[in-house]
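New to this. Look over this protein:
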Amino acid sequence: MTLAGVSATIPILPARDIAEAVAFYARLGFALMGDPYPDYALVRRDGCEIHFWRCADRAIAEQCSAYLRSGDVDALHAEFAKAGLAEAGGRLSRPTDRPWGMREFEVWDPSGCLLRIGCPAKRA
């Protein structure tokens, strides 16, 4: 890769409340990077980085998503299921094998953003 190459993709998701977003993603194992600003924050877990910008319009957040890859969707889902996401305003779906060959589950954060998390499905 040259210096002009692209080395990472980082989603920037809307959050109705930055502190709420940071606290919710901490339940998912993400750690705050630096100090949050009133209108912006960065979190990281296992090399995955997500940024948040303050946006009070839930309709915008509900149109935003990010796809995260995992080596073991079922283990990660089990971890997230123990994290009390519903108490923090989030939702969690069950892992499902998709027709496109991925095993995936979804997390909706309190602002309405969707995280879809997947890995290649095991072939029968």
